[in-house]
Amino acid sequence: MISTASEDNFNDIDELMALDPLELSQQNLDRIIAYQRKHRLLREQGVKPKKASGEAKPAVDLSELLAGLKPTQKPTISARRR
Amino acid sequence: MNDMPASPFLPGTKIQYAWDSTSLNDLKTCPRKYQYTMIDGWVPKEESIHLRFGQEYHAAIQDFENSRAKGQSFDDAVRYAVWNLLIRIKDWDPDPTLRAFQHKNKDQLLHLVVCYFDEYRNDPYETLILENGLPAVELTFKFQLDFGPAQQVTADKVALNAGNITYLQEPQQYLLCGHLDRVVTFQGDTYVLDHKTTTTTPSDYYFAQYSPNNQMTLYTFAGKVILDTVISGVVVEAAQVTNEKPMKFVRRPTYRSDEVIDEWLDDLEYHLANAEAFAQANYWPMNDTACGNYGGCKFREVCSRPAAVRDRFLKSDFIQLAPEERWNPLRSR
Questions:
Q1: Chain A contacts of B78, Cβ < 8 Å?
Q2: Which residues of A touch B49 (CB under 8 A)?
Q3: pTM
Q4: Do residues B137 and B182 lie in contact, with contact meaning Cβ atoms separated by under 8 Å?
């Protein structure tokens, strides 16, 4: 489970990545690099990375879609002998 | 500033004289594929993401290597390479609707580059330093073979004098061109190192494709020619680009003896003669046994259609580049 601390870092990274690269300070760069290293550790631990900005959002939100469905009677197949 | 390279074709013809591993690969795989790519300039709409991703990955590593060769610390070199990368890709806007975007986008590129530097922080492979003090990275090569297109030996271009043939116009010899990613030494041997990015697992099956392999043989040969030293072979360095699992890096050498290279050169003469014959006939036959290779040729859907409608499918799924934008072995990086 991704910790709250890393979610805060993620938001900071979003802001850093939105800056003009020519405006980035050495500290900014170090934070970007540190984030990538932390990201690598999370992957090695099997933690699913949160989608960063710029990545494609899913075309369909499955959880929202499934939330509206009601259980129906299990379909049965009846075959007639010919 | 325009840096227009010369055309790789003999003037007024479709006979290519300047070749690199990419154009040779296409020719050897399927003349029709070669025609669509090199002669007609068709590229799939998705190809630009793969190309750009690979180019930027290479460029970041080159920046890092250049910094280290200048004596900068590991951390400073990483910082500079990352900063330069961010500057270069600032306006890169890959299409998120394309399938390639899932693995190859700006975030993934940045992550891959940092992981690469950390993976090889204590690299046992040392970059060769050239006589000019520069690191042997992104070495461009272009050298002549001792033969050229036969089409140039025509009655109007030669003079016969007492049994000796004199060329009225110096014939163009074939050129072999390309770029060596990096030249390294390891345990006393010198290798060309080639960076590859892949979404597949770098397993024995993956590395099997590199022997025999047109590109690796050419690079071994080129390394020997331009560096005038013994090159044992090429180290293929695969970087697996993953979405959720850690990026994976694997290196595997592929060796080429002088005998293997000599045979490759002998075969090359036949392949280039074929290319010249196709160009003179203005017809490039399809090799319909290669359509399923490596997950399927990018032109398979086009070639599976009747000839009369192929143009429509090309225009639908491909972009036709202007001649000056098409793949050109003579273009410098």
A1: 33
A2: none
A3: 0.83
A4: yes
